[in-house]
Amino acid sequence: MKAARYYGPGDIRIEQIPEPEPKEGQVKIKVAWNGICGSDLHAYLTTLPVFPTFTKPNELTGETLPVTLGHEFSGTIVSIGSGVDEEIFKIGQNAIVEPAFSCLKNSCNYCATGATNVCPKLNFIGIGGWGGGLSEYIAVNTRQVHILPESIPLEIGAMIEPLAVCWHAVQRSGFKDGQSVLVVGAGPIGLFLVKVLRSFGPSSTIIVSEPALIRRELASKHGADVLINPLASSSSSPVPTAVLNATSNVGVDVAFDAAGTQAGLDSALLSVRPHGTFVNVALWEEHPRVNMTLILHREITFTGSSVYAGIHPEVIEAVAASRITGIEELITRKIAIEDVMERGFLALLKEKDKQVKILVHP
Fold first, then answer.
1. What is the distance between the alpha carbons of residues 125 and 41, in angstroms, rounded to a whole number?
2. CATH number of 166-304
3. For the residues 213-241, what does the mean pLDDT come to?
4. Is the per-residue pLDDT at 49 higher than 80?
5. What is the pLDDT of residues 162-193, one digit of tens each?
């Protein structure tokens, strides 16, 4: 079968590899759509996130490079391994995969308490091994498979994973309806944050800072009240100034950093009111500088949000119940796997003013 194989930064190859068959406790899924994620772009540019190497295997999968990429995907169950409950998992059902995996040992304080997302050995299908969504088929343990209701198309299913990232981040923040919020960066995660925030807070003021015009326009269409171009030359600090103007000179209750840049972090922190909350959702390639004095004097709660743990069913339910709608409008391109480099990875890196979410059909 065809698969996009990761050999290292800048080296992704479309290759023919053996088609998997489901082992005990697994189902085999024919992949319909796989979204290219910001983590995939980091992998293309650097050694982030944590991949195995050619000589050092991932501790849980035992795999070395190359590995098959892709962790935001949907598809259809085409065969079932032994030991699978066929009352729950049936051939022909559409499904998504929750790609994060951890050690799941009782001796791990985090996995034992359900906080699998902060397990020191956390990794992902499509990064640490065990196949990936940028392939025609994948065999997956059923504990990571969620059946899609008939009302959710496969294209939307491929975007449940990043929605779950944002759902978890909003829960981590303690955000409540009526509060003001700033989202820095309106890439896919930033835009999904806007949609989740609006579903949690219909009467809240949502402010978005984003340099790309198409992404600001999408943020406005999907729930943002105030749009800021952080590169505007009218002010030396356009983001904090606009935030203060929009919040009666108080600052926002919650700020989310979905950009991962020093300038974005600085402007977000300056925009948080005293006793407000800052949540980092971005994956950083370098260690940022953090204004601890500002955090001290304003008593800002500063936290991070790492993927998710056990919330995919409630996200699926929210989408099925139309609490979150219009997700398909964030898809700016659909491509074949053969075009994943030129019209996928490189397009997202070079055409930020045109592309948001690109789906790949293996």
1. 16
2. 3.40.50.720
3. 91
4. no
5. 999 999 999 999 999 999 999 999 999 999 99
Closest CA to 209 of 184, 231, 233: 184
101: pLDDT strictly greater than 90: yes
Please tell me the distance from the alpha carbon of residue 112 to that of residue 316, in angstroms, as a whole number: 25
Nearest to 282 by CA among 256, 300, 250: 256
E strand or H helix that includes residue 76:
strand 72-80
Alpha-carbon radius of gyration of the chain? 20
What's the pTM?
0.96
Which one of 1.10.3720.10, 3.20.20.80, 3.90.180.10, 3.60.15.10 gives the CATH number of domain 2-158+326-361?
3.90.180.10
Q: Are strands 252-257 and 205-209 parallel, antiparallel or unpaired?
A: unpaired
> Assign residue 196 a region: left if phi > 0, alpha if psi is -120 to 50, beta otherwise?
alpha
Sequential DSSP letters for 285-351: SSPPP--HHHHHHHT-EEEE--S-SS-HHHHHHHHHTTSS--GGGGEEEEEEGGGIIIIIIHHHHH-
Q: How far is CA 105 from the centre of its chain?
A: 25
The first and second tokens of residue 117, run together, are: 């997302």
Q: Which residue do the tokens 């055409």 mark?
A: 351
Nearest to 135 by CA among 20, 241, 45: 20
Residue 68 has pLDDT above 80, yes or no: yes
DSSP reduced 3-state for 34: strand
What's the confidence (pLDDT) of residue 169? 98
Averaged pLDDT of the chain: 96
Q: Delimit the domains of the chain by residue range.
A: 2-158+326-361, 166-304
pLDDT band at 254 (very low <50, low <70, confident <90, very high): very high
Q: Pairing mode, if any, of strands 2-8 and 11-16?
A: antiparallel
